[in-house]
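As noted in the main text, all predictions were made from sequence alone. Below is one such record, for Sigma-54 factor interaction domain-containing protein.
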Amino acid sequence: MLKNKSNNRIRYSFEDIIGESQLITQIKELAARIGTSNSTVLITGESGTGKELFAQAIHGLSSRKNHSFVAVNCAAIPHELFESEVFGYEAGAFSGAKKEGKPGKIELAQNGTLFLDEISELPYQVQGKLLRVLQEREVERLGGTGSKNVDIRIIAATNRDLKSLVQEGKFRQDLFYRLYVFELKIPSLRQRKEDILPLAYHFINYLNDQIAQNVKYMSPELQEWLLSHDWPGNVRELRAFIERGMNLVEGDTLTIENSFLFSAFDATAHKTVEEEGTFAVSLEEAVTKAEIGAIQRALKESNGDRTKAAQILNIHLASLYRKMAKYKLK
Ligand SMILES: Nc1ncnc2c1ncn2[C@@H]1O[C@H](COP(=O)(O)OP(=O)(O)OP(=O)(O)O)[C@@H](O)[C@H]1O
Ligand SMILES: [Mg+2]
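Prediction:
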């Protein structure tokens, strides 16, 4: 439960940040300049815009790159465990503690970078303690008697407006100013529509390798739809959308139906495979089963009305007929 992505290695560098729009180019340039400094960085932006990607890239550019990148997701750690996770504890600090004690994330990030993701969720009492670490450059474990020097760089990220949380008294102002040295504002995907198609092709190429597909094109309707969608979930949503389509596509062209059919019935597909008691079933078989199940349910729900069924499935009527013929469904 507490494996908060702390494998201490980075997976992404600046080359992995796709996008040539003016907005993303400017942010990349700014991030590259910040990267070489040792200052604290606050990365802001909507969910799924690539904040963690930037955090890793900045670490990879810094003089700390050969040391750990330790990620702490502040929203994922239960409050009562927060202090011991982040500050560590000495032997016998509390009941249930490990006999030999345990270093906290701060110690694990020594000489490297501590990435505090979703910093807005940092419990209030921990905010004060963290501020002390940043000011004194020392950390004391729970139940400890002495403190250790720390040399870490902090990169924090949030998709909430920290300033208004400060105004509401939910986030300490002194900590806010300590973090707010450089702010890197990652623009939403809808603000940089030029990046949508390059990102989509990037994910297609990646998935071609991963799941042995050979997609080279996107249909004009799909491209148009991608460009007109608002992407509230930003790049993460785009990636998931493309991934769904890539699991269903046949041939070298990704179409809009590919992504939509699977989206509504994702959970059913998993269930079918799991009920079989085996994961050795090929992807194609699993997808076929999911499609058949989805179509049958839609037909049942619409009392055999195919137009309605196609609406439920969010596909064109023609494509419903094609699939029914293919699977010999009535
Ligand atoms: N510019 C980009 N190029 C390539 N991949 C990207 C880009 N931006 C985001 N991604 C991918 O999108 C997904 C979401 O990115 P990330 O986890 O960094 O978002 P986030 O801003 O931290 O979101 P959240 O606020 O929800 O934590 C990841 O799979 C990431 O690799
Ligand atoms: Mg994130």
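Residues 16-19, 45, 47-53, 159, 199, 235-236, 239 surround adenosine-5'-triphosphate (ligand 1) (CB under 6 Å). The longest strand covers residues 153-158. These features were considered when defining construct boundaries for the mutagenesis experiments described in Section 2.9.
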